[in-house]
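Colleagues,

For the teaching module next term, I've prepared a clean inverse folding example: a structure given as C-alpha coordinates, and then the sequence designed for it. I'd like students to try predicting residues themselves before seeing the answer, so please don't circulate the second half yet.
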Protein backbone atom coordinates (compact mmCIF):
# COMPACT_ATOMS: atom_id res chain seq x y z
CA UNK A 1 0.00 0.00 0.00
CA UNK A 2 1.49 3.31 -1.04
CA UNK A 3 0.31 5.35 1.94
CA UNK A 4 2.49 3.24 4.24
CA UNK A 5 3.82 5.11 7.25
CA UNK A 6 1.74 8.14 6.38
CA UNK A 7 1.61 9.26 9.99
CA UNK A 8 4.79 7.70 11.46
CA UNK A 9 8.41 8.87 11.76
CA UNK A 10 11.20 7.76 9.45
CA UNK A 11 14.97 7.57 9.31
CA UNK A 12 16.67 10.60 7.73
CA UNK A 13 16.07 11.05 4.04
CA UNK A 14 15.00 13.75 1.62
CA UNK A 15 11.87 15.79 1.21
CA UNK A 16 11.20 16.24 -2.53
CA UNK A 17 8.34 18.38 -3.82
CA UNK A 18 7.58 17.97 -7.51
CA UNK A 19 5.49 20.76 -9.01
CA UNK A 20 4.73 21.71 -12.63
CA UNK A 21 7.30 24.52 -12.64
CA UNK A 22 9.90 23.47 -10.08
CA UNK A 23 11.56 20.68 -8.14
CA UNK A 24 12.25 21.48 -4.47
CA UNK A 25 14.58 19.30 -2.40
CA UNK A 26 15.19 19.62 1.34
CA UNK A 27 17.24 17.77 3.93
CA UNK A 28 17.03 18.64 7.62
CA UNK A 29 18.50 17.30 10.81
CA UNK A 30 17.43 17.74 14.44
CA UNK A 31 19.65 20.04 16.45
CA UNK A 32 18.66 20.09 20.15
CA UNK A 33 15.22 21.77 20.14
CA UNK A 34 15.40 23.09 16.59
CA UNK A 35 16.10 21.90 13.06
CA UNK A 36 19.13 22.66 10.89
CA UNK A 37 18.63 23.08 7.16
CA UNK A 38 21.36 21.00 5.48
CA UNK A 39 20.12 21.11 1.88
CA UNK A 40 17.72 23.36 -0.02
CA UNK A 41 17.65 23.08 -3.81
CA UNK A 42 15.12 24.51 -6.24
CA UNK A 43 15.41 23.46 -9.87
CA UNK A 44 13.14 24.58 -12.75
CA UNK A 45 10.98 21.85 -14.32
CA UNK A 46 10.89 22.08 -18.14
CA UNK A 47 7.61 22.43 -20.00
CA UNK A 48 6.03 19.15 -21.12
CA UNK A 49 6.72 17.07 -18.01
CA UNK A 50 3.40 18.13 -16.45
CA UNK A 51 0.04 18.77 -18.10
CA UNK A 52 -2.80 20.33 -16.11
CA UNK A 53 -0.94 19.56 -12.90
CA UNK A 54 -0.40 15.88 -13.71
CA UNK A 55 2.92 14.13 -14.44
CA UNK A 56 2.82 13.04 -18.10
CA UNK A 57 6.54 12.34 -18.69
CA UNK A 58 7.81 10.19 -15.81
CA UNK A 59 11.17 9.31 -17.44
CA UNK A 60 12.04 12.99 -17.98
CA UNK A 61 11.07 13.88 -14.39
CA UNK A 62 13.04 10.90 -13.01
CA UNK A 63 16.07 12.01 -15.02
CA UNK A 64 15.76 15.59 -13.71
CA UNK A 65 15.60 14.30 -10.10
CA UNK A 66 18.63 12.03 -10.68
CA UNK A 67 20.68 14.79 -12.33
CA UNK A 68 19.82 17.33 -9.62
CA UNK A 69 20.84 14.97 -6.81
CA UNK A 70 24.07 14.01 -8.61
CA UNK A 71 24.98 17.65 -9.36
CA UNK A 72 24.60 18.47 -5.67
CA UNK A 73 26.40 15.31 -4.45
CA UNK A 74 23.34 14.09 -2.51
CA UNK A 75 23.53 10.40 -1.61
CA UNK A 76 20.32 9.85 0.40
CA UNK A 77 18.00 7.15 -0.98
CA UNK A 78 14.85 7.45 1.15
CA UNK A 79 12.37 10.07 0.00
CA UNK A 80 9.15 11.71 1.17
CA UNK A 81 7.02 13.39 -1.48
CA UNK A 82 3.43 14.54 -1.91
CA UNK A 83 0.51 14.55 -4.33
CA UNK A 84 -1.68 17.63 -4.88
CA UNK A 85 -4.67 17.96 -2.55
CA UNK A 86 -7.06 17.98 -5.52
CA UNK A 87 -6.06 14.33 -6.16
CA UNK A 88 -7.15 13.28 -2.67
CA UNK A 89 -10.36 12.52 -0.87
CA UNK A 90 -10.15 13.56 2.78
CA UNK A 91 -13.02 12.68 5.10
CA UNK A 92 -13.56 12.60 8.86
CA UNK A 93 -15.80 9.68 9.78
CA UNK A 94 -17.27 8.54 13.14
CA UNK A 95 -16.52 4.96 14.25
CA UNK A 96 -17.72 3.16 17.44
CA UNK A 97 -15.12 3.71 20.15
CA UNK A 98 -15.19 0.16 21.56
CA UNK A 99 -13.44 -1.41 18.54
CA UNK A 100 -9.88 -2.58 19.05
CA UNK A 101 -7.22 -1.48 16.54
CA UNK A 102 -7.61 -4.47 14.21
CA UNK A 103 -11.43 -4.21 14.19
CA UNK A 104 -11.16 -0.47 13.57
CA UNK A 105 -8.80 -1.04 10.66
CA UNK A 106 -11.10 -3.62 9.12
CA UNK A 107 -14.17 -1.44 9.52
CA UNK A 108 -12.53 1.71 8.11
CA UNK A 109 -10.71 0.16 5.14
CA UNK A 110 -13.16 -2.58 4.16
CA UNK A 111 -16.57 -1.21 5.10
CA UNK A 112 -16.78 2.53 5.84
CA UNK A 113 -14.36 3.71 3.16
CA UNK A 114 -16.61 2.47 0.36
CA UNK A 115 -19.41 4.78 1.57
CA UNK A 116 -17.22 7.86 1.09
CA UNK A 117 -15.40 7.04 -2.14
CA UNK A 118 -16.65 8.08 -5.59
CA UNK A 119 -14.67 5.21 -7.17
CA UNK A 120 -14.49 1.45 -6.52
CA UNK A 121 -12.47 0.51 -3.42
CA UNK A 122 -9.95 -1.52 -5.45
CA UNK A 123 -9.03 1.58 -7.49
CA UNK A 124 -7.79 3.64 -4.53
CA UNK A 125 -4.96 3.69 -2.01
CA UNK A 126 -6.17 4.41 1.52
CA UNK A 127 -4.81 5.30 4.92
CA UNK A 128 -6.40 6.57 8.10
CA UNK A 129 -5.59 8.00 11.50
CA UNK A 130 -7.58 8.09 14.72
CA UNK A 131 -8.31 11.59 15.97
CA UNK A 132 -10.23 12.41 19.17
CA UNK A 133 -13.15 10.76 20.98
CA UNK A 134 -16.59 12.34 21.21
CA UNK A 135 -20.16 11.51 22.19
CA UNK A 136 -22.80 11.55 19.47
CA UNK A 137 -26.34 12.93 19.96
CA UNK A 138 -27.44 9.58 21.44
CA UNK A 139 -24.67 9.66 24.05
CA UNK A 140 -22.68 6.87 22.35
CA UNK A 141 -18.93 7.26 22.53
CA UNK A 142 -17.27 7.32 19.12
CA UNK A 143 -13.85 8.06 17.70
CA UNK A 144 -13.25 10.40 14.78
CA UNK A 145 -11.13 8.84 12.06
CA UNK A 146 -9.36 10.81 9.35
CA UNK A 147 -9.64 8.90 6.08
CA UNK A 148 -7.30 9.76 3.20
CA UNK A 149 -7.61 8.25 -0.29
CA UNK A 150 -6.13 8.81 -3.73
CA UNK A 151 -6.72 6.99 -7.00
CA UNK A 152 -4.18 4.22 -7.47
CA UNK A 153 -3.34 5.42 -10.98
CA UNK A 154 -2.12 8.71 -9.45
CA UNK A 155 0.00 7.11 -6.72
CA UNK A 156 1.41 4.62 -9.25
CA UNK A 157 2.81 7.48 -11.36
CA UNK A 158 4.68 8.89 -8.34
CA UNK A 159 5.92 5.44 -7.33
CA UNK A 160 7.09 4.76 -10.85
CA UNK A 161 8.84 8.13 -11.24
CA UNK A 162 10.90 7.79 -8.06
CA UNK A 163 11.69 4.16 -8.79
CA UNK A 164 13.07 5.22 -12.18
CA UNK A 165 15.16 7.82 -10.35
CA UNK A 166 16.65 5.03 -8.21
CA UNK A 167 15.00 6.29 -5.01
CA UNK A 168 12.96 4.53 -2.34
CA UNK A 169 9.65 6.31 -1.87
CA UNK A 170 8.78 5.55 1.73
CA UNK A 171 6.30 8.41 2.35
CA UNK A 172 3.70 9.71 -0.07
CA UNK A 173 1.23 12.13 1.45
CA UNK A 174 -1.09 14.97 0.54
CA UNK A 175 0.72 18.30 0.14
CA UNK A 176 -1.63 20.12 2.53
CA UNK A 177 -0.64 17.67 5.30
CA UNK A 178 3.03 18.54 4.76
CA UNK A 179 2.16 22.23 4.84
CA UNK A 180 0.15 21.85 8.07
CA UNK A 181 3.08 20.00 9.70
CA UNK A 182 5.35 22.97 8.96
CA UNK A 183 3.05 25.56 10.59
CA UNK A 184 1.62 23.34 13.35
CA UNK A 185 2.71 25.74 16.11
CA UNK A 186 0.98 28.63 14.35
CA UNK A 187 -2.24 26.62 14.05
CA UNK A 188 -2.22 25.79 17.78
CA UNK A 189 -3.18 29.38 18.61
CA UNK A 190 -6.70 28.75 17.29
CA UNK A 191 -9.44 27.22 19.45
CA UNK A 192 -11.74 24.30 18.53
CA UNK A 193 -14.41 26.68 17.20
CA UNK A 194 -11.93 28.64 15.08
CA UNK A 195 -10.95 27.69 11.54
CA UNK A 196 -7.84 28.76 9.66
CA UNK A 197 -7.98 28.94 5.86
CA UNK A 198 -4.83 27.75 4.11
CA UNK A 199 -4.52 29.48 0.74
CA UNK A 200 -1.75 27.67 -1.15
CA UNK A 201 -1.08 29.67 -4.34
CA UNK A 202 0.75 27.27 -6.66
CA UNK A 203 1.81 27.53 -10.33
CA UNK A 204 -1.47 26.74 -12.13
CA UNK A 205 -3.96 26.64 -9.26
CA UNK A 206 -4.69 27.64 -5.69
CA UNK A 207 -5.53 24.95 -3.15
CA UNK A 208 -7.88 26.10 -0.40
CA UNK A 209 -8.02 24.05 2.80
CA UNK A 210 -10.12 25.00 5.81
CA UNK A 211 -8.35 23.62 8.87
CA UNK A 212 -9.78 23.05 12.37
CA UNK A 213 -7.63 21.57 15.16
CA UNK A 214 -4.86 20.94 12.64
CA UNK A 215 -7.07 18.79 10.37
CA UNK A 216 -8.38 19.80 6.91
CA UNK A 217 -12.19 19.83 7.05
CA UNK A 218 -12.89 21.19 3.58
CA UNK A 219 -10.79 21.53 0.44
CA UNK A 220 -11.18 23.03 -3.00
CA UNK A 221 -8.89 23.78 -5.93
CA UNK A 222 -9.31 26.98 -7.97
CA UNK A 223 -7.63 27.28 -11.40
CA UNK A 224 -5.78 30.53 -10.61
CA UNK A 225 -2.06 30.40 -9.81
CA UNK A 226 1.18 32.32 -10.26
CA UNK A 227 1.24 31.52 -14.00
CA UNK A 228 -2.21 33.10 -14.49
CA UNK A 229 -1.16 36.14 -12.43
CA UNK A 230 2.07 36.65 -14.37
CA UNK A 231 0.36 36.02 -17.73
CA UNK A 232 -2.18 38.77 -17.00
CA UNK A 233 0.63 41.11 -16.00
CA UNK A 234 2.72 40.28 -19.11
CA UNK A 235 -0.19 40.66 -21.54
CA UNK A 236 -1.13 44.04 -20.11
CA UNK A 237 2.48 45.22 -20.46
CA UNK A 238 2.88 43.71 -23.97
CA UNK A 239 5.60 41.34 -22.75
CA UNK A 240 6.01 37.69 -23.81
CA UNK A 241 4.42 35.18 -21.41
CA UNK A 242 7.07 33.05 -19.67
CA UNK A 243 6.90 30.05 -17.35
CA UNK A 244 9.40 31.71 -15.02
CA UNK A 245 7.27 33.74 -12.61
CA UNK A 246 10.19 35.63 -11.10
CA UNK A 247 8.68 38.98 -12.11
CA UNK A 248 5.91 38.38 -9.55
CA UNK A 249 8.47 38.02 -6.75
CA UNK A 250 9.40 41.65 -7.18
CA UNK A 251 5.83 42.96 -7.17
CA UNK A 252 4.16 44.77 -4.30
CA UNK A 253 0.35 44.90 -4.27
CA UNK A 254 -0.85 48.44 -3.48
CA UNK A 255 -2.53 48.66 -0.09
CA UNK A 256 -5.02 51.23 -1.42
CA UNK A 257 -5.58 49.81 -4.91
CA UNK A 258 -7.59 52.61 -6.50
CA UNK A 259 -5.12 55.43 -5.72
CA UNK A 260 -2.00 53.42 -6.51
CA UNK A 261 -3.25 52.33 -9.91
CA UNK A 262 -2.68 55.84 -11.19
CA UNK A 263 0.77 56.62 -12.55
CA UNK A 264 0.95 60.39 -12.55
CA UNK A 265 -1.14 61.99 -15.24
CA UNK A 266 -0.86 59.01 -17.57
CA UNK A 267 -3.84 57.18 -16.07
CA UNK A 268 -4.03 53.58 -14.87
CA UNK A 269 -0.97 51.35 -14.66
CA UNK A 270 -2.23 48.54 -16.93
CA UNK A 271 0.03 45.80 -15.50
CA UNK A 272 -1.07 46.31 -11.91
CA UNK A 273 -4.71 46.74 -12.97
CA UNK A 274 -4.59 43.36 -14.74
CA UNK A 275 -2.89 41.70 -11.78
CA UNK A 276 -5.48 43.09 -9.37
CA UNK A 277 -8.34 41.85 -11.57
CA UNK A 278 -7.06 38.26 -11.36
CA UNK A 279 -6.39 38.59 -7.61
CA UNK A 280 -9.94 39.93 -7.26
CA UNK A 281 -11.26 36.79 -8.98
CA UNK A 282 -9.23 34.66 -6.56
CA UNK A 283 -10.60 36.63 -3.60
CA UNK A 284 -14.16 36.05 -4.88
CA UNK A 285 -13.51 32.28 -5.13
CA UNK A 286 -12.11 32.29 -1.61
CA UNK A 287 -15.21 34.08 -0.35
CA UNK A 288 -17.48 31.52 -2.04
CA UNK A 289 -15.53 28.61 -0.53
CA UNK A 290 -15.60 30.11 2.97
CA UNK A 291 -19.32 30.94 2.77
CA UNK A 292 -20.13 27.43 1.54
CA UNK A 293 -18.17 25.86 4.38
CA UNK A 294 -19.66 28.13 7.07
CA UNK A 295 -23.18 27.34 5.83
CA UNK A 296 -22.47 23.64 6.38
CA UNK A 297 -20.64 23.85 9.68
CA UNK A 298 -22.77 25.93 12.01
CA UNK A 299 -20.95 27.57 14.89
CA UNK A 300 -17.41 27.82 13.53
CA UNK A 301 -15.79 31.14 12.72
CA UNK A 302 -12.89 31.92 10.39
CA UNK A 303 -10.00 33.17 12.53
CA UNK A 304 -7.36 33.78 9.85
CA UNK A 305 -6.29 33.30 6.25
CA UNK A 306 -2.77 31.89 5.86
CA UNK A 307 -1.07 32.50 2.51
CA UNK A 308 1.31 29.81 1.29
CA UNK A 309 2.90 28.54 -1.91
CA UNK A 310 5.13 30.38 -4.40
CA UNK A 311 2.43 33.05 -4.84
CA UNK A 312 1.86 33.47 -1.11
CA UNK A 313 4.86 35.75 -0.63
CA UNK A 314 3.93 38.48 -3.12
CA UNK A 315 4.50 41.83 -1.41
CA UNK A 316 1.48 43.06 0.62
CA UNK A 317 -0.77 40.29 -0.71
CA UNK A 318 -1.83 39.71 2.91
CA UNK A 319 -3.08 43.30 3.13
CA UNK A 320 -4.95 42.90 -0.17
CA UNK A 321 -6.92 39.89 1.12
CA UNK A 322 -7.46 41.47 4.55
CA UNK A 323 -9.04 44.52 2.87
CA UNK A 324 -10.95 42.56 0.25
CA UNK A 325 -12.39 39.85 2.52
CA UNK A 326 -12.41 41.63 5.90
CA UNK A 327 -10.53 38.67 7.38
CA UNK A 328 -7.13 38.82 9.09
CA UNK A 329 -4.56 37.45 6.64
CA UNK A 330 -0.94 36.48 7.13
CA UNK A 331 1.82 35.16 4.86
CA UNK A 332 3.20 31.98 6.40
CA UNK A 333 6.87 31.87 7.35
CA UNK A 334 7.83 28.20 7.78
CA UNK A 335 11.46 29.18 8.44
CA UNK A 336 10.40 31.17 11.52
CA UNK A 337 7.68 28.65 12.51
CA UNK A 338 10.29 25.88 12.73
CA UNK A 339 13.01 28.13 14.22
CA UNK A 340 15.07 26.79 11.34
CA UNK A 341 18.84 27.22 11.53
CA UNK A 342 20.53 27.74 8.19
CA UNK A 343 23.81 28.89 6.72
CA UNK A 344 22.28 31.24 4.14
CA UNK A 345 19.32 33.56 4.71
CA UNK A 346 16.16 32.82 2.68
CA UNK A 347 14.37 35.97 1.38
CA UNK A 348 10.94 36.63 2.94
CA UNK A 349 9.20 36.54 -0.46
CA UNK A 350 10.36 32.94 -1.02
CA UNK A 351 9.49 31.54 2.41
CA UNK A 352 5.74 30.86 1.94
CA UNK A 353 6.66 28.68 -1.08
CA UNK A 354 8.79 26.36 1.08
CA UNK A 355 6.02 25.20 3.44
CA UNK A 356 5.30 21.90 1.65
CA UNK A 357 8.88 20.80 1.00
CA UNK A 358 9.98 21.63 4.55
CA UNK A 359 7.03 19.60 5.85
CA UNK A 360 8.19 16.67 3.70
CA UNK A 361 11.73 17.11 5.03
CA UNK A 362 10.38 16.91 8.60
CA UNK A 363 8.94 13.48 7.81
CA UNK A 364 12.45 12.25 7.08
CA UNK A 365 14.23 13.59 10.18
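(Answer key — instructors only)
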Amino acid sequence: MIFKNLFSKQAQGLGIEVAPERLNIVQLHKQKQTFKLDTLISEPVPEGIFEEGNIVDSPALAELIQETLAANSIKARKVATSVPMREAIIRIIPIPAELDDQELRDMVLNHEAGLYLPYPREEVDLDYQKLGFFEDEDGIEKVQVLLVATKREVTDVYLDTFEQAGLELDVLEINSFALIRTIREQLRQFGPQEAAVLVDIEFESTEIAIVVDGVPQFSRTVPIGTFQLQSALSRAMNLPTKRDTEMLQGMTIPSTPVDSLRTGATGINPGMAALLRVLGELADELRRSIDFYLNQSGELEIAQLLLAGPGGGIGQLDEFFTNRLSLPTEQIDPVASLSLEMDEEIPDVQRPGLGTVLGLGLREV
